[in-house]
Amino acid sequence: MxxxxxxxxxxxxxxxxxxxxxxxxxxGLIGTFSYHSLAQIERKMGFxxxxxxxxxxxxEIRRYEKNFMLYGHHEDFDESRxxxxxxxxxxxxxxxxxxxxxxxxxxASLKSVLADYEAVSGRLFVxxxxxxxxxxxxxxxxxxxxxxxxxxLVDLSQRLVTHERARILxxxxxxxxxxLFSVVVFLALGGGFLFVLGHKTVxxxxxxxxxxxxxxxGRFKTLAPSGSDDEVERVIGAFNHxxxxxxxxxxxLVREKKLSSLGVLTSGVAHQLNxxxxxxxxxxQILMEEGQEADPAFSRKLLGNIDQEVARARDxxxxxxxxxxxxxxxxxxxxxxxxxxRSVRLVSSQVPAGVEITRAIPADLILPMDxxxxxxxxxxxxxxALQALQSRKGGQGRIAITAERDxxxxxxxxxxxxxxxxIDPEDIARIFDPFFTTKEVGKGTGLGLSIVFGIVEKHQGxxxxxxxxxxxxxxxxxxxxxxxxxxPEAGAPA
Length: 494
Description:
With 494 residues, this protein is α+β, with helices and mostly antiparallel strands. It contains eleven helices and seven strands.
């Protein structure tokens, strides 16, 4: 394992500060380079303007030179000499910039050619002014030389302008590449920063969001630690602590709900025990009165009745004790018909005279389940069904519990249907949410169906509800017929 990188060990606040500092430094560095390039372009543009002036001045020199050579006017010669002097001044002004931009050789060539031009034009003026002079061939040679030097002046000035404009374009292209590179670097750094900082934060937030949705469904699952020492880790720790506290509170509420159910069942059990106890008491009194004179066959019959009533009372108390006893979740092969029968027996004292509970469950339907918790499922569904029937006018109806095998899906299909008032369509989507209830305040905690949902899910089963208002409700449970094969651990050989 490589040790974690220093940046990854920083908390979010320090990462943000470091990212801002790096951004400021990068902007400052890029700004400095850009300012230097722009300043260089500005100086070169000024240099090009001066060279343009020099080029225009040289063109004026050539224009007056042409007029002088054609017409011999002294004014044209004077204008030409004035523009030549102006050109010399411009060259003097350009001397520092030429050295800065590496154009000293071109600058010196211009000065030399301009000096030759002035010398040749001076000789031609003297020769034309005297009306006589050197042979015609020499005069023609000076004229040719004047034209050549003038052309050199124009070419050199234009070459300077072209050279500097090319340099300006090069700087502009370099600046464009620099800005493009800066954008790419910024995007890369920003993307990397967001990935390192944002990806982890967003992942944690999504995990918290998903866990919150699971909490809303009654499933409490802690988040895995992020493995870092930052705000995300502290938020995850606080969230896990909240989940643990919520789990404790829900367990307390579930116990209270169970105690409430026990209170309801106990009052019925008391009535159920009255009958066998009365029968036992009556039989005992008869035996005591008859004494030794009692017929042996009649005595055996009374004793048999006493034994049956004791067994009946024992079964009633045993069912109540099994329901109330707290134990760890354990799935083992259990007869579904027995679990349903015990559940019906426990609520039988709560069943009004006009309500019928029917069972159609195969005796050989054995499922891997926790009998106590599955009994709690059927008790909650039966109590809800009885309350739904009582809400109808007359309080009469029927509750039907059926089960069958679904071999294709390797499941048992169990239904608990009633002919009660039904469930409103807008409530069906929330019927299994914790603390959601349609009962009046003080008459329901909203935990019964949430507990049912949790127990069925813990058995790796499914539960759904179908209902039409006024026509009753039908709860559909799908429970596995066999335990799923254990999954191999990650990295273990197949």
